[in-house]
């Protein structure tokens, strides 16, 4: 009996290892400086390609997981995310617990408001759209976090070739990391950003620390998801959703200012 207890304890420790790794991983520092933002070769909302200067910041290495989000709920008493759609039950919380087997997966079915509240609770904030893009592509203007050519094995995206038909545990595609080491910035789940979405913003936004329009109706989401085709996984692709919107393929990560 004692051996069984020891084995069970060891299994629990191992299964929680990924939760702990994701929760304890330090933020990645993105140094101050200019980078290429946008693209002249793709959708109108990505134009014009321009040089943008950002102050230094740190960004989460991984998307926020169900495990990390549970700590936030336990601390604040906030209600767990709930969609109510029958097909989304795999992502529903039960008695305050995240979906079984998803502790180290990116939390989903969170609205922009939920994501913003978590980041503030954690001592940070949601990334601006410019911060997200620089963290994803670096300074050389690449199309994907790993380079200019799409490669199936580097991201959890549309199709079975990448090994997953649902979300994957964070950090499951290390070869797809960005130049700074941020992981899963292409695929797995879309990620909320702080900015209001405006498809024409690049034509008039400032070239130093842009923060998006002062007002709007939709918030920016970036990065593509497990159901996205390669064109949507590009580092420059942008779109927006209502801040109250929830989906099984939208999550987030946080940033902090560097003092």
Report the total helices: 4
CATH top level? Answer: Alpha Beta
In CATH, the topology is named paralog of FGE (formylglycine-generating enzyme)
Mind telling me the C-alpha Rg?
18 Å
- How many separate structural domains? 1
CATH architecture: Alpha-Beta Complex
General form: globular
**Mean pLDDT across every amino acid position:** 88
Structural class: alpha+beta
Range of helix content: 10-25%
Q: Strand sequence of the main sheet, in spatial order?
A: 7-6-5-8
N-to-C order of helices and strands:
HEEEEHHHEEEEE
Supply the CATH superfamily name: paralog of FGE (formylglycine-generating enzyme)
GO molecular function, one term: formylglycine-generating oxidase activity
Protein name: Sulfatase-modifying factor enzyme-like domain-containing protein
Domain Sulfatase-modifying factor enzyme-like: 28-256
Signal peptide: 1-20
